[in-house]
Design brief:
By secondary structure, the chain is of the alpha/beta class. It has one domain (5-259): NAD(P)-binding Rossmann-like Domain (Rossmann fold, 3-Layer(aba) Sandwich). The chain contains eight helices and seven strands; from the N terminus they run E-H-E-H-E-H-E-H-E-H-E-H-E-H-H. The chain has helices spanning 14-25, 38-51, 68-82, 105-133, 156-178, 213-226, 235-246, 249-259; strands at residues 5-9, 30-35, 57-62, 87-90, 138-143, 184-191, 230-233. A seven-stranded parallel sheet has the order 3-2-1-4-5-6-7, with helices on both faces. Strand 6, helix 6 and strand 7 form a beta-alpha-beta unit. Helix 3 packs parallel to helix 4 and helix 4 packs parallel to helix 5 (156-178). It is globular, with a radius of gyration of 18 Å. The relative contact order is 0.12.
Length: 273
Amino acid sequence: MENTRFVITGAASGMGLMYARRAVAEGAAVVVLWDLDKAGLARATSELSKVARPTTQVVADTVDLSSRSAIEKAAAAVTAKFGGTDVLINNAGVVRGAFFWDHDNAKHTELTMQVNALAPMFATHEFLPGMMASSSPARIVNIASAAGMLSNPKMSVYASSKWALIGWSDSLRLELKREGYPQVAVTTVAPSYISTGMFEGVRGPLMTPIMKPEYAVDRVWRAMISGKSFLMLPWSVHLSKFLKGVLPQRAFDWIAGNVFHVYDSMEHFTGRK
């Protein structure tokens, strides 16, 4: 990805920072970090700037991804300074593990939908015209979740945000393909649990180990470069999607709950403090 411009959301820590490290290591021209964590952004920028090539610019912007106007303002700044981006990685996300009736509408439900579902749409909407107008390869990576394809207790709002993200992301892929913009590839990523701290306390379902973030980042990176349309991690996510499609609901619920133990995987969830 040498000489490529990147914008990465949720880049102050976790997998967002790991994507940024990969971009810097491969000689990206510009790596723009978006996050609400100002102190984390400062640390990330310092770290990346020390190892970046002289031709790589690392830029951080404190962006509230729950605000459409903040996203539009930050995107306009990137376009004005760098002419847009070649790669947009919509990585940022929030989760609350609780029964639906224990969610506060503003603090939990609205925020989750804004950050997980709407923010990727708003960011993509700002950068997409430039990608479409250019003949150079462009990539949009939307980090969804296996929860966006499989219902799970104590994940109702999070799952709904990821269902929305998956539906929009893959529809966008088809629109670009149909209307003649093959240079813009959209990759939708639906992983199961990853040990970043975001899902601290969860138990991986049967045959679905909690993945190391290094493994997930590498798989996403390779899928992005190749323009792969859909990436599900690990392989058992494919199996659950297949079983849900062919089995009666009662049978699938029994298998998911009693064999794979998907439905109680969030029982001891604590999350990141």
